[in-house]
Amino acid sequence: MDFTKRIHRFTVVPSLSGELAILQTLAYNLWWTWEPDAVELFKRLDIDLWQQTRHNPVEMLGILQQTTLERLVADEGFMAQLKRVEEKYHGYMTGKTWFDRTWNGERPLRVAYFSMEFGLHESVPTYSGGLGVLAGDHLKSASDLGIPLVGIGLLYRQGYFRQYLNIEGWQQELYPENDFYNLPLKLQRDEEGQPVTIELDLAGRKVHVQIWKVQVGRIPLYLLDTNMEENDPLDREITAQLYGGDQDMRIRQEILLGIGGIRALNRLGIDPNVCHMNEGHAAFLALERTKLLMEKHGLRFPEAMEAVRAGTIFTTHTPVDAGIDHFPADLLERYLGRYYRFLGLSRDEFLSLGRQLPKNPHESFCMAVLALRLANHANGVSQLHGEVSRKMWKNLWPELPDEHIPITSVTNGVHTKTWLSVEMAGLLTRYLGNRWREDPTDSLLWKRVANIPDSELWRTHERCRERLVVFARRRLKDHLHQVGATAKEIAQADEVLDPEALTIGFARRFATYKRGTLLFRDLDRLARILNDADRPVQIIFSGKAHPHDVEGKELIRRIFQHSLEARFHNRIVFIEDYDMAVARHLVQGVDVWLNTPLRPLEASGTSGMKVAFNGGLNMSVLDGWWPEGYRGNNGWAIGKGEVYDDIDFQNEVESRAIYDLLEKEVIPLFYDRGPDGIPRGWLACMKASLQTLCPVFSTERMVKEYAERMYLPSFEEWRTLAGDGLARAVDLARWKGEMHRSWHQVKVISVEAPAPEEVPLGAPIPVTARIALGDIVPDRVIVETYCGVLDSRGNIVGGELIPLDHAEEEGGGSHRFTGDIETRFCGRHGFMIRVMPRHPELGPVYEQGLLVWG
Ligand SMILES: *Cc1c(COP(=O)(O)O)cnc(C)c1O
Question: Which parts of the sequence belong to the DUF3417 domain (predicted)?
Fold first, then answer.
């Protein structure tokens, strides 16, 4: 007998009455996680419970004894602090924001931000790593800036795994079950108190989905959950684990996120006009939006699609194809067969949406390709990654030169208040005033870092380093306890690391491209560096490998084994179970953050930015964000961005570069102390780093950029196409159809540019182009010259587009267009003519197949 069906259920909630009731509100809004006074308040409730619950106030409030609560109400100091935090909270929730001030409420923008993971706090385990933490920081800054945005994701029963190492250092995985009722989650219910649910059809099975809400400041985040009794056990597993399971599981999760996500919003009465796909996992959302519009307005797929595309944004995070989801046709048929037929698409039309070359039947269905086809705005997450992405996806725009591929970049950032230590935040407020909290993007403000006395900045940083060392020892002791070490061994853990030694941090996913063991190529040299009696150096490692990644686990095992060798024993520590709490301690306490990805495989990386805010210095390969951050005086670059074909050679060169930098620059600078024990040169570098990096690499800057460069333009395009019952979208689809039918007549007949072999700089060159247009009228096209300097292979680089004017019709559908080319640089130039369709209202429109070069 299945007992679970007979159990009557109810939820017990803590009884916090009167003056303490506000604690409940605070615990259920993650605003507290980036407000140090609120954190302090929860710690004061019970410091042991705070540790035991992994810093989870909701759970704490559930276990606190009545006597403790009574004691708190009687504690004047506590009650005064509670009052202060309450006022701050109300001030935050109701204050005027950047978005209000800048756009004055005149833009009814509504953004929905979709992501497979969200890293908000260690107590809410719905993330695995960088992608999730970025999504969490995005929501927090959207809240600070007042962007009208909601988040959509999945609620995993087990989240990502917890890591511990066995006695050999081999990674073990634990999957503790989350208790949703002890997390800051609220099940969404209707007026009758019944859970709000939506349904999905997966391979003929009905799947019921319930919706939970996490409040992140002003921003609601809705998380979908299939763990309902009505569901087939197979489908209850869809939200069991983040990145667990096989492709069959992955596609169901992505259908849930994209299609289920749109349905959930619709069910909740939220009607976004801009949808942002954080990575390709969410790309199915555009299909569901299209389907809704088709039903509502009685339209065909291509018509509704035009409007949806205008209101869709895609951010790619992966510079390697292996990191992107590809699904075989039979899997799509199983789960989306009925769905695409309902959209009025043939099997081939549907599959071609996910192929770079639409006609290639051997290509599998790629989620990033689907996202690129269905989004009007796409971006990579650093300038370098933007470049890499344009090359990676150029097959989708076969008629465009690389630099015109419409994938731009918005460089990542971090949420300042989440990652900054309390000590550093206090120091900044003393010398910069309070404004860095509201507007950390003001670079003039950060110039004032120069006014911080060296000794104060140094003491502040030293306190954070000490705390990191204490934290590392405690975690090491926990580990030793776990593996059954002797009392003596455990006691010795108090001797590892030196709170005053130069401390290097290295923490990240243990994917092989991040090259966690680069430092260990020459063990003798490393041992000499670390054990110099006068100038000791120590390294703290942390990070998880994906459960199936044996190579990644092997890297961890090797580092762990080295940490046991006598010569490294007190100098290298591996902290288990990397999460946001470990990350916070590390980024706040290290002197140097080491980053060694194989260029250009790190799309951005964000942990180094967290370090920069706390006064640590970056030492990194010129990959991801670092080419934008590095200025010569604010940290170190490993190499100059070279890429060799032989990876082993690359590893050798770069590991030597690391040793050289450490021996010749980093260590001498750190230990060059004045009579007061303060390293002036090092502090100059710290200050340069704070001044140059803080105004740029925050999510405040990043989300503003998304708002100005992506959300608002996308909103305007949506408004144009979706207005009047999608009249313009219908018209655009029809117009594109006509253009496709007529375009074969467009040809460049001849081009004349009577120029001598050498042209003086700036002298205009007259150009005449004869173009055959057939029955297309000349103001339905735009004819341009594309002119620029030639590289050694004869390609135009950094070219400029200059439109030509229609001069006359010459009969027989042939037209003369004329204009001038202007040169702005010396050197070998070339130019081409290109013809593109021009919509009467929307202007030039790029559409695959509708572009001619001559
Ligand atoms: C910031 C952060 C990351 C991102 O790390 P990168 O290696 O810089 O991409 C990953 N995991 C956690 C827990 C983080 O806090």
Answer: 17-123
| 130 token code pair | 């960088």
Q: Could you check whether 98-409 and 461-675 share the same CATH topology?
A: yes
**Which fold does the domain 461-675 belong to in CATH?**
Rossmann fold (3.40.50)
Instruction: State the pLDDT confidence band at 675, using cuts at 50, 70 and 90.
Output: very high
Centre of ligand 1 from the C-alpha of residue 606, in Å: 6
Ligand 1 centroid–CA 24 distance in Å is 30
Decide the pairing of beta strands 408-409 and 377-380.
parallel
Please tell me the distance from the alpha carbon of residue 637 to that of residue 654, in angstroms, as a whole number.
Answer: 10
E strand residue ranges, 569-720: 572-575, 592-595, 617-621, 635-638
- Going from N- to C-terminal start, the domains of the chain cover 3-94, 98-409, 461-675, 746-853
Nearest ligand 1 atom to the CA of 514 is 7
DSSP class of 642:
-
Q: What tokens appear for 778 in the block?
A: 């000349």
- In short, whether 580's Cβ falls inside 6 Å of ligand 1 is yes
Q: Kindly report the average pLDDT of the chain as a whole number.
A: 94
Q: Which helix (H) or strand (E) holds 690?
A: helix 680-693
Q: Are 764 and 821 in contact (CB under 8 A)?
A: yes
- CA of 610, closest atom in ligand 1: 1
This prediction has a pTM of 0.96
Judge whether residue 1 has pLDDT over 60: no
Tokens 């006064």 identify what position?
A: 615
Establish whether residue 130 lines the binding site of ligand 1, counting it when its CB lies within 6 angstroms of any ligand atom: yes
Instruction: State how far the Cα of 756 lies from the Cα of 669, in Å rounded to an integer.
Output: 58
Structure-token pair, residue 624? 């991801």
Would you say the CB of residue 226 lies under 6 angstroms from ligand 1?
A: no
CA angle 534, 538, 539 (to 5 degrees): 160
User: What's the chain's Rg over C-alpha atoms?
Assistant: 29
Nearest CA, atom 1, ligand 1:
607
Query: Which run of H or of E encompasses 852?
Result: strand 852-853
CA distance 116 to 129: 11
- ω into 600 cis (within 30 of 0): yes
For residue 12, what pLDDT band results from cuts at 50, 70 and 90? Answer: low
CATH architecture of 746-853: Sandwich (2.60)
d(CA 649, CA 655): 10
What is the token pair recorded at 450? 């120069």
The answer for residues whose C-beta is within 8 angstroms of residue 308's C-beta and 6 or more apart is 286, 289, 290, 293, 374
Q: How many degrees, rounded to 5, is the angle at CA 202 between CA 160 and CA 310?
A: 80
Mean pLDDT, residues 166-187: 94
Any atom of ligand 1 within 6 Å of the Cβ of 508: yes
Q: Assess whether the C-beta atom of 601 lies below 6 angstroms from ligand 1.
A: no
For the residues 272-288, what does the mean pLDDT come to? 98
Distance of CA 839 to the CA centre of its chain: 35
Ligand 1 closest atom vs CA 582: 13
pLDDT in tens, 249-273: 999 999 999 999 999 999 999 999 9
Share of the chain above pLDDT 90, in %: 85
* Superfamily the domain 98-409 falls into: Glycogen Phosphorylase B; (3.40.50.2000)
Report the pLDDT averaged over residues 525-544: 97
Question: Considering only CA atoms, which of 416, 385, 426, 506 is closest in space to residue 696?
Answer: 416
